[in-house]
Amino acid sequence: MPEDLDYSPLTAPVDPAEALAYAKANGDRPTRDLACCAFLFALIMAVLVAFLSIPLNMYLTGTHPDGGVGVRLLGLLPVAVGLGLVVLVIVASRRSGRQERINHYRIMRFAARNGLGYRMKVKDPEHPAGIFNTGDARCAVDVVSIEGPRPMEIGLHGYLAGYRGGEPFRWGYATAALDADLPHLLLNSRAKGMGNALKSGDDPLGNPDLHGPGTEAFNVHGPFGRAQEIQALLDRTLFAPDLLARYAERPVHIELVENRLYFFSRESLSTTDPDTWRWLLALLTDTAERLES
Fold first, then answer.
1. For 218, which DSSP code?
2. What is the pLDDT of residue 249?
3. What residues in the chain have per-residue pLDDT under 70?
4. Do 274 and 7 meet the contact criterion of CB atoms below 8 Å apart?
C-alpha cells in the first residue's frame, strides 16, 4: 500500500474552465454530447406534444366552439409542459456534466500529486476478469495505476448488455498483482444492494460444496472437483473472521484470476472521497498479503 498519500487534491477547489479544457484535451467533447442529447430529447418531446395537443385542441374546439383566449391557452398546455421539461433536462445535464468534469480533474490532480498514473478514459480495458469481456461499448474511466512492489489499478468500468444489449452497467473495480498461483475463484457478495452477480468469463466454474460463515457472505464459484482445496484456501485467507468483518462493512464482489485479485463494487472506487481511498488501498493490500501467505 502506498504510504503518505496526499489526498487534498480530491477535495480542493477547481476552476470549471480548467476542468473543461482538460476534458476537451483528452478527447471528451461535452458540448457536442449535450447538444446531441438535447436534440434527441427535444425531438421525443415534440412527438409527444403533437400527440397530445392535436386531440386536445380538437376536443376543445368541438366542445367550446366559441371559446375565448382561455380555451386557446389550455390547448397550448402540452406545448408549455414539453418546453419546460426540455429546459429542465438541459439544465440538469449541464450541471451533471460540469460536476463529472470537475471530478475527473480532481482525481487526475490527486494522481499527479502522488506520482500515480491516470487515464481519464480507457476503451476496451484488457483484464482477465470476466466482467471486462461482457457486453458492448466497454470503457473504463478515472483509471488510476500504482506502480511499485505490488502494482494496482483502480477505476470505474462500464458496458452495455441486458435487454437487447442496451442496458448500461457500471462497476467500480480495484485490482492488484499476486505473487501466488491460485485457482480461478469468483466470490459474489450476498449483501443487499450488490445487484446482479458477476460472471466468470469463459472459464467453466462450478459451485463447490462449502460450509462456514464465509458462505453466508459470498456465493462461491470455482473449478470443478476441488471443493476441499478451495475450502482450505478460503478458510485461511478470505474467510478469516477479521477479513469477513471488513467485507461486511463495505461489500465487494471478489475474483481471483491469472494471479490477480479483483474487487468489484456497485459504487465508484476511483472517487473524490479520501476515506474511500484509504479504506480501499488498505483492504486491497491486506487481502493480497493474506492470499500470498
1. E
2. 92
3. 1, 27-97, 197, 200-202
4. yes
Beta strands in the chain (DSSP E): 117-123, 136-146, 152-161, 167-177, 185-189, 218-221, 253-257, 260-265
Cβ contact 226:205 at 8 Å: no
Retrieve residue 182's grid coordinates. 491460485
Distance CA 173, CA 269 (A): 6
All three cell numbers of 128, joined, read 482477465
Contacts made by residues 205-210, CB under 8 angstroms, sequence distance 24+: 210/234
pLDDT (tens digit, 9 = 90+) per residue, 107-148? 999 999 999 999 999 999 999 998 999 889 999 999 999 998
C-alpha cell at 181: 498461483
Q: How close are the terminal C-alpha atoms of the chain, in Å?
A: 16
Among candidates 203, 197, 152, 195, which has minimal Cα distance to 174?
A: 152
Q: Measured between alpha carbons, how far is 81 from 141 in angstroms, rounded to an integer?
A: 36
